[in-house]
Amino acid sequence: xxxxxxxxxxxxxxxxxxxxxxxxxxxxxxxxxxxxxxxxxxxxxxxxxxxxxxxxxxxxxxxxxxxxxxxxxxxxxxxxxxxxxxxxxxxxxxxxxxxxxxxxxxxxxxxxxxxxxxxxxxxxxxxxxxxxxxxxxxxxxxxxxxxxxxxxxxxxxxxxxxxxxxxxxxxxxxxxxxxxxxxxxxxxxxxxxxxxxxxxxxxxxxxxxxxxxxxxxxxxxxxxxxxxxxxxxxxxxxxxxxxxxxxxxxxxxxxxxxxxxxxxxxxxxxxxxxxxxxxxxxxxxxxxxxxxxxxxxxxxxxxxxxxxxxxxxxxxxxxxxxxxxxxxxxxxxxxxxxxxxxxxxxxxxxxxxxxxxxxxxxxxxxxxxxxxxxxxxxxxxxxxxxxxxxxxxxxxxxxxxxxxxxxxxxxxxxxxxxxxxxxxxxxxxxxxxxxxxxxxxxxxxxxxxxxxxxxxxxxxxxxxxxxxxxxxxxxxxxxxxxxxxxxxxxxxxxxxxxxxxxxxxxxxxxxxxxxxxxxxxxxxxxxxxxxxxxxxxxxxxxxxxxxxxxxxxxxxxxxxxxxxxxxxxxxxxxxxxxxxxxxxxxxxxxxxxxxxxxxxxxxxxxxxxxxxxxxxxxxxxxxxxxxxxxxxxxxxxxxxxxxxxxxxxxxxxxxxxxxxxxxxxxxxxxxxxxxxxxxxxxxxxxxxxxxxxxxxxxxxxxxxxxxxxxxxxxxxxxxxxxxxxxxxxxxxxxxxxxxxxxxxxxxxxxxxxxxxxxxxxxxxxxxxxxxxxxxxxxxxxxxxxxxxxxxxxxxxxxxxxxxxxxxxxxxxxxxxxxxxxxxxxxxxxxxxxxxxxxxxxxxxxxxxxxxxxxxxxxxxxxxxxxxxxxxxxxxxxxxxxxxxxxxxxxxxxxxxxxxxxxxxxxxxxxxxxxxxxxxxxxxxxxxxxxxxxxxxxxxxxxxxxxxxxxxxxxxxxxxxxxxxxxxxxxxxxxxxxxxxxxxxxxxxxxxxxxxxxxxxxxxxxxxxxxxxxxxxxxxxxxxxxxxxxxxxxxxxxxxxxxxx
Length: 1044
Ligand SMILES: Nc1ncnc2c1ncn2[C@@H]1O[C@H](COP(=O)(O)OP(=O)(O)O)[C@@H](O)[C@H]1O
Ligand SMILES: [Mg+2]
Known about the structure:
With about 1050 residues, the protein is α+β, with helices and mostly antiparallel strands. It contains 36 helices and 31 strands. The strands form eight sheets. It has an eight-stranded mixed beta sheet, with helices on both faces. A seven-stranded mixed beta sheet has the order 1-2-16-3-12-6-7, sandwiched between helices. It is rod-shaped, with a radius of gyration of 69 Å. The two termini are about 120 Å apart.
């Protein structure tokens, strides 16, 4: 398997690299490991030169970055360039400081190991610039948390403040850091910067009171004078833009530098102070201290005639007392007298002029020095990560940035250079420890076949300086403590006595010939790993003691300036113990620094200064060769070439990459070394690419590792998906189980509820049945508890039955059969119901229909049960008349007149009284009479009043006889008529003539009057069909069919 190439938008990156490679002749190699002749220093320097000429200031030695100061702005630090380097491996792109920064950052995130980036090189080589670039890179590319943009800003803004107070123009560098700085940038587990911490080392305080020719004091003094607002300067008692007036600023005779804009610097510092979180009062007090240092410098003394020293500059004194918030007269006394405590008694003795000047300078230095320390603390408070709960070593990691003064050689080297160069020896020692020495020791321990590389181990020099009792620092401290008259010279002599034979130590007295000439009488020479340096001992004791007169300290303790009062503690005055000397303090802090650095994974930037003139494009070979030599770059290269770029414990290696091989994934159960062997075999590592040691794997080329990393990166996706799937599966299953459990609980509860309800129902049902049966048994007993349910039920069901089966009409006779106990009630109800129906019926009835009914009712009263043909007539409706007006002769109508209107007419047959001849006639019933009509002739008219009665038979014939009084001569006797509508006609006649009670229904014979005293008879019999004949006895015999 070979790995996928990284593809994402890095085409541009790849182009840069390839063009770089194709132009190798012109620009040299980007990694010294690729040099053919890697043992040749000339080839090394030639490669640097080629690249420098092309503006390529960065070159690798494996993972070490070599940087040559371009002394001009290059366009390689843009935001786009930062983006390009994000997540890109070393070998994929031409060397860059961002690549190194990114590599450390990635290592921090993937391996969660603290990192540190050590930037070394001599003064002016570009260390501070490099550290700033790295900080900018991190603040740009790292992800942000909600509040981390403020932290980013603060991290960035801490630089201008510290530079203003701790940097100065020197001969070597216009912006030389005069203090050492180690900064931790703290990242959370997501890689977002969340805080920072700064450690500062040995500020070069002597610069406050004195500067070498061509150098300046710290930037802040000039910035305040150039940029400070008029009102501020006035308050501070300073004169604008005139550094010449201040003694502390004129020592180097170089108040202004064209490359530095102090005015602009002031603005930047003011802004940075606000961003970091200084309030206006603090800024004010800070500036009061800066101003008071300048006023101290201008404080002058004279020796009067009595030999006492007096302050001659009262205005300065006034400003001082005002700015420092101390009593003027006390300050004055402290500046001119010292306080001696002897046998518990305090005595005051005057200073000599020289002593007064020295006291003044030491006060200025001490004040400035502790203010600087206060400033660092203040910045640290502002950068500190506040979220304590969140902060723990597990979830945050740091990248440390070390920008410490580089190796320094001046014409005149003093205590400061001694300390600075000692520090560089220590760093070189660390470098050796971490790379060269440990590399080689490790190869041996691991049994790796390896070509030994000789290198110079500078431990001997470190020991020379720091060894207990015998080292230079120990001897210096001893001299400082000596009660007798110790002096710088006595210190030099002591050094000669103790260290005279040391190979790296030489003095004027001990050297011979040529060397003796090169060393001054008051100098000692140390042969540093980086070269020889002569140190002038004058001032060593004083600087090492770093003491401020007690009297002055007391004054400062009482200061009303809050910064000063925080810096000078009364407790220190009480403490009779001697404080650690400056050199010992420095030694201790360096030891701590080494510990910090040792605990982290280092990355190196080796800065080289191409010329002393700070000019772009000038490549001073001698100067560079010296730096290449003392930085140990050739040794570094040789060890790297022979050695391995990467090594890892089998366990760690396997743990990290095991997912890339099916045999080792997810777990390897065999021996670790075999697991790693299987893994690298699967990864197709070539034999020359790696070696397997006893407990570690060694990989020759970074490229091999990077490809493996790429493969892992790609594999992570799959692993993540697998993890996600399993997790989702797991969580869904868990969820399903939870739901199922819940369902079961609900189900069982519900079943319980249902079961209980059912049981209750059954119980109720059984009770009901029991009650029912009991009730049934006792149904005939009087109502009691035992039968009331049954009785109620019977009643209820009967009533419901009634309700359901109510008669629909008045004719509907149906009615549910009531239980015996309800017979009476049932009857009542039936009656009420019928009553209602009838009522209903009646209210809805029409007038004609009413009339019809009345007639029918009457007919029923007369004929019901009396006459056979009555039932047949019931369904046939009575009509208003059987003869319409046009059927009646007009003449008849006219004769009858208006008053005698025909109400009813019907065709009848009239039988003669004598011969019973049948004749067709019309019977008309008028309002007052019954009229028999033949055509236009009125045959007979019978007034209703004259009508005696009407006779009909009980059979089904249509005969009826109208009885008329025979006494009336106008009348001819009773009228025998037959009609098809006998019931209707007789009923209507009875109504009109009001003869309802005069209707006679005979069984078989009707007698009628033929004339006065003469009677006729009609006999009625039943037969098969209708027959009307005159019998021999003179009767009319009517046979009618029987209606069954
Ligand atoms: N990468 C760079 N690009 C441009 N100029 C640089 C660069 N590095 C250094 N310089 C120049 O060199 C000067 C000295 O660099 P500095 O970092 O202060 O040196 P050191 O801290 O090593 O003493 C800077 O002020 C700047 O002008
Ligand atoms: Mg610097």
